[in-house]
Specification:
- With 231 residues, the chain is of the alpha+beta class.
- It is built from seven helices and five strands.
- It has a five-stranded antiparallel β-sheet with strand order 4-3-2-1-5.
- Helix 2 runs antiparallel to helix 7 and helix 5 runs antiparallel to helix 7.
- The C terminus is likely disordered.
Length: 231
C-alpha cells in the first residue's frame, strides 16, 4: 500500500493537475451543451425560405410563395406586418411531420440534463464511476441527436411546410428553402455530445489509474472529487 506522502506526491504531478483542469473544462462544456440543447429544441428556425432577392428570374407563381421558417414545434409564415405561427411548444406538441425527430431531440435533452445532474454525485461517489455514467449518458444523447437530425429532413415534403418551400420540396429535398442556424446547431450539438462522451470515458479511465486498488482514502467535506480528489 502506498503511504500518504507518496500519494500526495502523485497528486502533485503535472499530469494530475492537467487532469483536474480538463475535468473542469469538461463540466463547463457539458453545462453549455445543456443550454444549447434547450435552444435547439425551442427555436423554430431550423429551415427557412430562401431569400427571393437572390432568385432572379423567378416565375410569377413562385413570387407568390409564402415566406417563413419552421422547426420541430412550429411553422411560421411571415406576413407583411406580423408573423403567424402554427404549432405549440408550451404543450410539447410537435409539427406532425416532425414528431419522430422531436422525440429523439427531446430524449437527447433529457439525457444531457441528467448528466448535468450527475455532477452532484462527485460529492458522494467515486469520480471515475461518475465520469463513466456521464459518458454513457452523453453517448446515448449523441445517438438520439443524430437520429433526430437524420429523421428531420424526411418531413420536408409535408403539407405543413410545402407552402414555404415550394412544389419541389420533398423528403430530404429543401426545394426553395435553406438550412438555417437551428438545424446547424443541432448537428453541432451531436458532435459536441460525442466529443464530451469520449472525453468523459478518458477521464474516468485515467481516474481509475491514479491510485492502486487497495487504496481507500477517507472522505473529506469540501470540493467535489473532480476538482479536489481526496488525499
Amino acid at each position: 500500500m502506498l503511504e500518504a506522502k507518496e500519494v500526495a506526491k502523485l497528486y502533485q504531478t503535472d499530469f494530475i493537475r492537467n487532469a483536474r483542469a480538463v475535468g473542469v473544462l469538461w463540466a463547463v462544456c457539458t453545462l453549455c451543451f445543456g443550454i444549447l440543447e434547450i435552444v435547439v429544441l425551442i427555436q423554430p428556425t431550423w429551415v427557412r425560405t430562401a431569400d427571393r432577392r437572390v432568385r432572379a428570374g423567378a416565375a410569377p407563381a413562385s413570387l407568390q410563395q409564402a415566406v417563413g421558417y419552421f422547426g420541430l414545434y412550429q411553422v411560421c409564415v411571415e406576413m407583411e406586418w406580423a408573423v403567424e405561427c402554427r404549432g405549440s411548444l408550451s404543450t410539447l406538441t410537435p409539427v406532425p411531420a416532425f414528431k419522430a425527430a422531436a422525440v429523439f431531440i427531446f430524449m437527447a435533452l433529457i439525457l444531457v440534463l441528467t448528466s448535468v445532474g450527475c455532477f452532484a454525485l462527485f460529492w458522494f461517489c467515486n469520480a471515475a464511476t461518475v465520469y463513466k455514467v456521464c459518458a454513457w449518458l452523453q453517448l446515448t444523447a449523441a445517438t438520439c441527436q443524430a437520429l433526430g437530425c437524420l429523421i428531420f429532413p424526411d418531413g420536408w415534403g409535408a403539407p405543413e411546410v410545402r407552402p414555404l418551400c415550394g412544389r419541389r420540396a420533398d423528403s430530404y429535398q429543401l426545394g426553395d428553402c435553406t438550412v438555417h442556424w437551428g438545424f446547424t446547431l443541432a448537428i453541432l450539438g451531436m458532435v459536441d455530445a460525442l466529443v464530451l462522451s469520449v472525453l468523459a470515458f478518458v477521464l474516468g479511465n485515467r481516474q481509475d489509474a491514479l491510485l492502486p486498488d487497495d487504496y481507500r482514502p477517507e472522505k473529506k467535506v469540501g470540493l467535489p472529487a473532480m476538482i479536489a480528489p481526496d488525499l
